[in-house]
TrEMBL record:
It catalyses: (sulfur carrier)-H + L-cysteine = (sulfur carrier)-SH + L-alanine. The gene is iscS_1. Coiled coil: none annotated. Its cofactor is pyridoxal 5'-phosphate. NCBIfam families: PRK02948.1 (NF002806). InterPro entries: Aminotrans_V_dom, Aminotrans_V_PyrdxlP_BS, Cysteine_dSase, PyrdxlP-dep_Trfase, PyrdxlP-dep_Trfase_major, PyrdxlP-dep_Trfase_small. This is cysteine desulfurase. SUPFAM superfamilies: PLP-dependent transferases. It comes from Planococcus massiliensis. Residues 4-360 form the Aminotransferase class V domain. Keywords: Iron, Iron-sulfur, Metal-binding, Pyridoxal phosphate, Transferase. It comes from the Bacteria. It is an enzyme of class 2 (transferase).
Length: 377
């Protein structure tokens, strides 16, 4: 059975060229970038070249890029690093953030901080006006994701950034799901901190970066050596960074092409369901191109995902499966309420490299067949 992978928002397969770059770097660029000899300088050049590419990809300056172990560390560094540096105890975030943000904020709440969790509308969108109304004299940080990983809603980051740019409040956005899919300009967005991870755009796991605007106060959360201009201790993962750079190079070169392909995939999927007489609704508005979150009335998502898996299709509910039960998605709860039927019948299909229109058609047909079968039970 040839499996059809439709869970690229969870993680993406490494691009063959990226894997080749990774393999070559593992063998050839093994020096410590902090060493002054030739072997170390070769590793340093790899870091410098990658940092330059990452900075250019978001219209930043090279020194504003801090290498991290991925998106979770970047989010934690943004939140805890800001809290440690600034006076004031108030933070603003949204109810639909990734848990790397939500759990970090919850930890700060336990330490005496006051966190405002902004609601979203039924399209999964934060209102800039709500951010404005939540601001206080002691607000130190606003952290709102750029693109939601479950429903793909793209938040009004530029509008929020415009509200905050004349203030002393630090503005962070988690761009892990959006980087490599949407064009990003930190100047246009007016953000101070921005988090990225490589494994969402066909790079290796365990590597990412945090953009830190020059002059933005930030305390390190790791202590050790003086790597990353004393901001993030630990010897840099040079092979992963080299592979990450290759993934970014490919993503930037193919962004428009992929967006067009994903738009076709979405339309094909919905057209097949419509032709098969399947009732459905699409969750999320102003969506990223690679995420399709559908509500299929009359089905139970747990059994639906099991049946899809047996049929060779990898998809996701966006929820945590544990011990035979599914915890409701916090994103869908925020959008529709705690008793909404969407909590039990919504499924996320997400697209990436290696897919064909024929595979999308097959996956949609199988989705229709399973939906009909389960509706009879």
């Amino acid at each position: 059975m040839n499996r059809i992978y439709l869970d690229h928002a969870a993680t993406s397969p490494m691009h063959p060229e990226v894997a080749e770059t990774f393999s070559e770097a593992l063998l050839s660029v093994f020096g410590n970038p902090s060493s002054i000899h030739g072997t170390g300088r070769a590793a340093r050049k790899t870091l410098d070249d990658a940092r330059r590419m990452f900075a250019a990809s978001i219209h930043a300056d090279d020194p504003e890029i801090i290498f991290t172990s991925g998106g979770t560390e970047a989010d934690n560094m943004a939140i805890f690093g800001t809290a440690a540096k600034k006076e004031g105890k108030h933070i603003i975030t949204s109810q639909i953030e990734h848990h790397a943000v939500l759990h970090a904020c919850e930890k700060l709440e336990r330490e005496g901080y006051d966190v405002t969790y902004l609601p979203v509308d039924e399209k999964g969108l934060v209102r800039a006006e709500d951010v404005k109304n939540a601001l206080r004299d002691d607000t130190i940080l606003v952290t709102i994701m750029l693109g939601n990983n479950e429903v793909g809603s793209v938040q009004p980051i530029a509008e929020i950034g415009e509200l905050l740019k004349e203030t002393e409040i630090t503005f962070h956005t988690d761009a892990v799901q959006a980087y490599g899919v949407l064009p990003i300009d930190v100047e246009a967005l007016n953000v101070d901190l921005l988090s990225v991870s490589a494994h969402k755009l066909n790079g290796p796991k365990g590597i990412g970066f945090l953009y830190q605007r020059k002059g933005t106060p930030l305390s390190p959360i790791f202590y050790g050596g003086e790597q990353e201009r004393k901001r993030r201790a630990g010897t840099e993962n040079v092979p992963a960074i080299a592979a990450f750079a290759k993934a970014v190079e490919i993503s930037l070169a193919t962004m428009d092409e992929r967006a067009a392909a994903y738009a076709r995939y979405k339309q094909i999927f919905k057209d097949v369901l419509t032709d098969e007489g399947i009732e459905f609704s699409e969750n999320g508005g102003s969506q990223m191109p690679h995420i399709l979150n559908l509500s299929l009335p009359g089905i139970d998502i747990e059994s639906f995902l099991v049946n899809l898996d047996i049929a060779g299709i990898s998809a996701s509910s966006g929820s945590a499966c544990t011990a035979g039960s599914i915890d409701p998605s916090h994103v869908l709860v925020a959008m529709f309420g705690e008793k909404a039927e969407q909590l039990r019948n919504s499924i996320r299909f997400s697209f990436g490299i290696g897919l064909t229109e024929q595979q999308i058609t097959e996956a949609a047909e199988m989705t229709a067949q399973i939906s009909k079968r389960l509706a009879l039970l």
